[in-house]
Amino acid sequence: MGLEDELRLQRQRAQERWDPKERSVRAAAIEAVRESGLAGSALTVGESIPRFTLPDATGRPVSVSDVLTLGPVVISFYRGGWCPYCNLELRALQGRLSDIQELGASLLAISPERPDRSLSTVEKHSLAFPVLSDHDNAVARAFRLVHKIDPAVVAYQLRNGNDVAQHNGTEIVEVPLPATYVVDSNGTVRFAAVSADFTRRTEPDDIVDAIRRISTESTTLS
Question: Please, what is the Cα angle at 41 between 65 and 158, to 5 degrees?
Fold first, then answer.
């Protein structure tokens, strides 16, 4: 089963669980993000990524500049371990990690959650790639991805035991749009997929294909 198949099943489960009012509120929130144009203004192909250093789930600092010296880098922004769509995406990325690494690339996942929350995500899903904590969405903001979650949706999240602000160690409930970047070793974005709808994610096959194109170009040029 591909990632989109799993996401579709998750969407169906959510729709069945929510009452009509909640379905309406959540659909309106997604539409508001779409209409804001944020996804279209995010960092995109041809731009250089901001250089950053963030702590991983154990608190160890990870510098993207250091990782780029090893080759291309996949950067996946996700909302948090409380988001079932994010967890499906992280597991799918883990499933293709060997393919990514065999092509000489590295994978970094970034969320605004505190390191202890990220550690829980790493352990729960047996992730073998760095999961970084972006406090106050500082890096996601530089990628032009950040938005506030609609207060009406926050109220539903709190009822479900998901205090996103507390998870992030902030007072404002902000998250990045789900976004996947493939960056060449010079730090130039070669593939970008940003979704205004948090239930939609990038298929790992597309990520691997993007890395393969970079590798093929590098071989041709050499």
Answer: 85
Task: Give me the number of domains the chain comprises.
Answer: 1
pTM attached to this predicted model: 0.96
Q: Is 5 helix (H, G, I), strand (E, B) or coil?
A: helix
As a whole number of angstroms, the distance between CA 221 and CA 146 comes to 37
* CATH label of the domain that carries residue 83: 3.40.30.10
Q: Which H helix or E strand runs over 65? A: helix 64-68
How big is the chain by its Cα radius of gyration, in Å?
17
Grouping H, G, I as helix, E, B as strand and the rest as coil, residue 143 is coil
Interval 199-214: pLDDT, tens: 999 999 999 999 999 9
The catalytic residue among 86, 92, 119, 193 is: 86
Residue 86 falls in the annotated catalytic set: yes
What range does the domain containing 193 cover? 3-221
Contacts of residue 82, defined as CB under 8 A and 6 or more positions apart, other chains included, come to: 157, 162, 164, 167
CB-based burial, 121-152: b 16+ in 10 Å, e otherwise:
bbeebebebbbbbbeebebbeebbbbbebbee
| Token reading at 175 | 């998250």
